[in-house]
Each structure stands twice: as C-alpha cells, then as structure tokens.
Amino acid sequence: MGGVLLFAAADSAVQNASIFSPASPPAQSIHNLSILILAITGFIFFVVESVLFYSIYRFRRKESDRRSDHSTEPPQVYGSAPIEIAWTAAPLLIVVVIVLVSARTLWEVNIDPPPKPGNHALFVTVVGRQWWWEYTYDQFDGKPLGVVTANELHIPVSEARTPQPVYLTLKSADVYHSFWVPRLAGKTALVPGHTNSMWFQSAQQGLFVGQCAEYCGTQHANMLQRVVVDSPLDFQRWLDNEGKPAADPAIGDSAARDGRSMFLSLSCVNCHRIRGTAAQGNYAPDLTHLMSRQTLASGMIANDRAGVNLRRWIADPQAVKPGCLMPSFSLTNPQLDLIVAYLRGLN
Ligand code: CUA
C-alpha cells in the first residue's frame, strides 16, 4: 500500500491509488459502503466521546467533595427496562443495517451480472508469480485470443452505449498473491491450486496503478500493477500488435541479428518466450512485445526506448530487484550491447 502511494505520488497523481476516487462499479460499491460504515461508526464515536467528556466535566471533583467524608454515595439505580431495551435494540438495528448493506456490496463486487455471450466482455487469466503478473488474454468480444503479456493490463474503455466489462480469472503459480487496483475493484486473492474471479470496467481512460496486496516474499512490495484503459481504437491496435509473432530484426541490423542468435543460444530461452522463435520458456515474462510495455521488473523501472534500464536490468537483475528469480548471467559489455539491440526491436 505504502509503495503504491509513494509510486503514485512520484507520478504526481496520488488519486491514482485511492479508494476514495473510484472509477469502476465494484470500486464505487466498496467506496459507498466504506463511507456509510465511517458515518455510522463516526456517529457512535461522537456520541460515546461526548457522553464521556460530559461526565468527566460534570462529575469532576469539586471543593465540596474535598470537605465531605465520602461516606455518602450518589443514589444507586438497579435495572431499567426502557434503558436495557434501548441499548439492545439500537445496536441490533445498526448491525442489521450493516449486514444488509455489506451483503448487497458483496453481491455487486462479485461477478454480477454473470458474463453473457454477446456482450463486449474481455476475459483475461491472471497468474500471480514471484514477483510479477502474467496476463493471458482468453477472449474479447466473443472471439478467442491467445495473447500473453506481463505486468501491464490493457483494457478498453467502457462506454455507456457499449459497456465493456473485464472478467479476470485469478490463479497463482507459487504462493498467495492479491490483485488490487484500488480505483477499479477490491482485493481478490490469487491462491495456489484454486481459481478466483473478479470483474471491473472503467469509463475513464488512463493509467490505474495497484500492487500485490498479500505478502508473498522478498519482493512483494515491488510486485506493482498497471492497468491501462485505452480508447476502443487504441485497445484494438494494441491487441492486434500483441497477437503477432515477434518482429524479425531488420536485414541490415547486424547487432540485433547477432543479439537474437546470442539470446537463443543462452539459457534465457529456458524461462522466456518470444513467439516466432525457439525461445519457448513459460516461467518468466513473455518478451514477444517487450517494448510495448512502459516498465520493467513489474513496474519498478521505466522501460525507456533507448534501452538504458533494460541493459541495467539484464546486466544485474539482483542489483535492481534483490531476490528476484532472474539470475545474473555475467554477460560481457559487447554481449549486453547485442542482446539489448535485439530486445529493443521487440515492439
Ligand atoms: Cu505477490 Cu505480494
């Protein structure tokens, strides 16, 4: 939570991670419930504190008490049906209201209405991994897809005349994680061996940040999330591009071509996939369209076009994200240059 707020503050958009600025129906439901609970508990707090301070002041020790011998007690009252009924009925009523409103909120944030064939829904499977997010685009607008990407979820904006809900199927490859983009929806756990689901939609374009909300090991705090809500046209363009196999380096670009050969000869291929090449690992992020992403290392550092951070990352991942599962391969500078030259072309 703190990490997201700092990250968002650095982006000069603190609102980006606030539950008090909902941009999706489930987040709105949770926001409404929290305001109601805050109002009820705030009222109770105010009443209790008022009575307390009134009593402290009204029955404070006075001059007359000091002179008396304390043998006379105030009148003692035993049992009062009206008072007992009142202090039983009032809390009961409050609890009933909270139960009913919470039940309605639970209903709203769960998949409701269930996805119908024919609506413009996007279906994505999310796999939580130490310490990044794998997104597999299963279906959009009724058409099956096979797009795999990491860390940045692109979704289409949901307009009033064509609502485009996003349905996530949540799984884990290792330990418990929790999907949380506060402005879009509440937290949902990613549980090993169990499938969860959630949904949201946003009428507002732009970037929404979040982060893993369940402690999952050393780099839990750097398991950041970015959801990019695109215009329908931008989303379709992004989706079409992601569906293509990786770009071949230009004929004349010998650095990139040598970089590809080197990449394919190293153990990078055991973990990473680059569709259209022999690299078919499925343990680490899919790199087919690496440069279409804004960040590296699950939101930690910018993925600059020049490849400066990419080079830094490949040279020594442990220096950037200590404990991450990508080892350092102790590549020489010329080797790094070639690999970065190749990867920079994966748009
Ligand atoms: Cu994944 Cu915390």
Q: Could you explain how this protein is built, in words?
A:
This protein has 347 residues and is of the alpha+beta class. The chain has 2 domains: 206 residues, Immunoglobulin-like, CATH 2.60.40; 90 residues, Immunoglobulin-like. Helices cover 37% and strands 19% of the residues. It has 10 helices and 12 strands. The strands form 4 sheets. A 5-stranded mixed beta sheet has the order 3-2-1-5-8. A 3-stranded mixed beta sheet has the order 4-10-9. The chain has a two-stranded antiparallel sheet with strand order 6-7. A hairpin with a 2-residue loop joins β1 and β2. α2 packs antiparallel against α4 and α6 packs across α10. The longest helix is centred in the first third of the chain and has 34 residues. The chain is elongated, with a radius of gyration of 28 Å. The two termini are 31 Å apart. The structure holds dinuclear copper ion. The site of dinuclear copper ion (CUA) has 9 residues, from loops.
